[in-house]
Write a structure and sequence with these properties.
Distance between the termini: 49 Å
Oligomer: single chain
Number of helices: 3
Order of helices and strands: HHH
Radius of gyration: 21 Å
Mean pLDDT: 85
Low-confidence stretches: none
Shape: elongated
Number of strands: 0
Structural class: mainly alpha
Length: 68
């Protein structure tokens, strides 16, 4: 069966990473979420002409996430 062979080859190729995930249960999900949040803040902050307004936007967004 072609699909089963392809799946087996993929698992064999990635086995070291899969084993680390199983043992440590560590993922990069939190880091990726933080990076996405930073990108969104930067994207919306481009309208700001004053650096102080941009700084306040970052602080307020972070505070809102902390409270929620």
């Amino acid at each position: 069966m072609r699909e089963a062979t392809k799946l087996y080859d993929t698992v064999v190729a990635w086995w070291d990473a899969i084993e680390v995930l199983i043992v440590t249960a560590a993922t990069t999900a939190r880091v990726e979420a933080a990076n996405t949040g930073i990108k969104n803040i930067k994207r919306t902050g481009r309208r700001s002409r004053k650096p102080e307004n941009y700084r306040m936007r970052i602080l307020l967004t972070n505070a809102a996430r902390t409270v929620a």
